[in-house]
Amino acid sequence: QAAQAATARGWQLYVVGGSVRDLLLAKQEGNKSPAMQDIDLVVDGFDQTADVGAGVELAKTLQPLYPESRLEIHGAFQTAALLWHKHPVLGSLWIDIATARTEFYPYPAANPEVEASSIRQDLYRRDFTINALAVRLTSNHAGEVLDFFGGAIDLKERKIRVLHPNSLIEDPTRIYRAVRFAVRLRFTIEAQTEAYIRYAINSGVYQRSLLAHKKAPALQTRLKTELKYILQAPYWERAIQLLASLGALQCLHPTLQLNQKLWWLLRLVDRWLRRFDRQDNLVHWLLRLEVLLLGLETSDRQSVAYNLQLPNDSLERLSHLETYQTKIESGLSEFEQVSQIVKLLQNYDLPTLILVALRSEHRPTRQTIWKYLTIWKQVKSPLNGNDLKTLGYPPGALYKEILEDLLAATLDGRVSDR
Ligand code: CTP
């Protein structure tokens, strides 16, 4: 339907990006078809009568044909999307429809500005050759693969290669994307591209744009998204190691290095994540990122977390961790009874306790927090309010006190089973 609608207007329509890459890769590897994912379409066409691009026009034409889909328009970038939350066959589906465009960057790492142009230029602005392949959907040549930059060979040779030397200066998140694709697809980063990566990092452009450039919130959000993709993937360990070996953690902060201790903490946090997997407020990728930022001095950690626009509770944790740790450690060294320890630790949320446990040089602190989370936190008072009522206590403020005392007595082993 989309191809017909585009043809009727005299436009060309292409499918581009990740879905072409994954389809060709699956074919090459003899797999039937890759798992269905989001689809990126690009329309090459120009409509003088329209004040929006061809992509938006096409999406508007198509939406009524699929009443169960929802239309979203992003005017500034001349793109639209059709979304299905409950597609009859595919579950959820997201089709982006963009107008063929080039992007020029007014200054490094700024937001792309958009102007209409042809498919070749549209593909040229993309990150890697394997993502710059297109399949034509319109005209007699429907099904034809457009490969202007050697993407098919790189797919065969399993190489991640940028299209031009400036690619990584223009968009720092591409370093993280290069690593993500390399690890996920089991590709290698081609030598020249690796040299560009190192050059871009050493040039300091990222530090200027990420740390100092307050006008680049969109860039920071995109970097956070890439970090999230990496840190929530099953391959996160290999990706972090590769980022570190490329020096790319310096994009987050010039002093951030994956030393042995930090690596050990990252591995250790997984043990805690596995154990408390099902508990609230535990966001795996975020906690891994917080652990990674423990490799920084407090004030640097704070500013990186702030620049990445991490959620408030995360900012709070990373800013006050030392204070929390001191309070907890001095409390634990002073208290002897379990009920006192429980009273202290229940003031902190699960991610904070995990971070304090990891950071603590004091093994018993880690063991006590583990015991609190796995055993003591679950202990309940043997009686509840109803029981007290049945026993004839008059309802009132006293209940809270009695129940707390009972819980403390249970925790401290002062309540027998009889
Ligand atoms: N793209 C880019 N530079 C970026 C982000 C995206 O050039 N910093 C381009 C790539 O051509 C990519 C397309 O936009 O293929 C779509 O981006 P995205 O959906 O993030 O990537 P996919 O390739 O679809 O990857 P995935 O399989 O992870 O969804």
Task: Describe this entry's structure for a reader.
The protein has 418 residues and is of the alpha+beta class. The protein has 20 helices and 11 strands. A hairpin with a 3-residue loop joins strand 4 and strand 5. Helix 12 (260-275) packs antiparallel against helix 17. The longest helix has 23 residues, at 312-334. The protein is elongated and about 85 Å long. The termini are far apart. Bound molecules: cytidine-5'-triphosphate.
Relative helix content: 40-55%
Q: How big is the Rg?
A: 27 Å
Q: What is the average of the pLDDT values?
A: 87
Low-confidence stretches: 103-107, 110-117
**Tally of strands:** 11
With strands numbered from the N-terminus, the spatial order across the biggest sheet is 3-4-5-2-1-8-9
Bound molecules: cytidine-5'-triphosphate
Supply the number of helical segments. Answer: 20
Quaternary structure state of the chains depicted: single chain
Structural class: alpha+beta
* Cα separation of the termini: 75 Å
